[in-house]
Amino acid sequence: MITTLVSWLPGALGLLLRSKLYPLLIGKIGRNVTFGANVVLRHPRKIQIGDNVVIDDNVVLDAKGENNNGITIGNGVFVGRNTILSCKNGDIIIDDNANIGFNCEAFSASRIRIGKNVLLAAYAYLVGGTHYFDRTDIPILFQERSSQGIEVDDNAWIGAHAVVFDGVKIGKDCIIGAGAVVNKDVPDWKIAVGVPAKTVEDRRDANVAQTARLVNF
After folding, report:
1. Are 161 and 123 in contact, with CB atoms under 8 Å apart?
2. What's the whole-model pTM score?
């Protein structure tokens, strides 16, 4: 009833009513949390949100699962418009001050962690699960799902339209170029670009500025 009545309301009135009423639905919520219009909350009792968080318009927070913890969002996080955070019996953890751009998606069938101060540019996709496809007698859709999880460590920057596959760890202070497809771990401080993504530079090297000018993030 709450979401039916107030989720669509525009302007200051909608923001005010959602800030007062949505905490009644959510498992745990901090101070000064802003919900835009048409935010979708699924299994809200499995959603935890810290202080000073912005959930922009049309965001989907889906914490479904039988034995998972759900979605945990730290302090100072921004979740951009049209972004989807979707659990399928997995967990999604977004640490303090992460910035999730517009139209991003994180799908978790086990565990996805987005670290502190991570910048996820628009249309980035974290694919935290996959299907087996060894059988040919049934569609892939109905075959067993596997998941190893994804970790994007602190201070990393994931470029626009980048895709991060299941089982990958992106280290601290990394940069992933726009449109990259990351199917292997990226060590701390590295810049990785391309399809599939390959390391092209260490950010601590003296010539990193020249490389950065050649890469479109």
Report:
1. yes
2. 0.90
Question: Domain containing 74 — which CATH number?
Answer: 2.160.10.10
Among candidates 150, 152, 92, 167, which has minimal Cα distance to 118? 152
User: Is residue 197 domain-resident?
Assistant: no
* Amino acid (1-letter code) at residue 170: I
Q: Domain tally for the chain?
A: 1
pLDDT averaged per 10 residues in sequence order, the chain, 217 residues: 90 93 95 96 97 98 95 98 96 98 97 98 95 90 90 98 97 97 97 96 75 52
Q: What's the longest Cα–Cα distance across the chain?
A: 58
Query: Can you give the length of the chain in residues?
Result: 217
- Phi, psi of 2, rounded to the nearest 5 degrees: -60, -50
Which run of H or of E encompasses 125? strand 125-128
Q: Which of 137, 94, 138, 84 is nearest to 116 (CA)?
A: 94
Contacts of residue 82, defined as CB under 8 A and 6 or more positions apart, other chains included, come to: 57, 58, 59, 102, 103
What is the b/e burial string over 193-214, where b = at least 16 CB atoms within 10 angstroms of the residue's CB?
beeebeebbeeeeeebeebeee
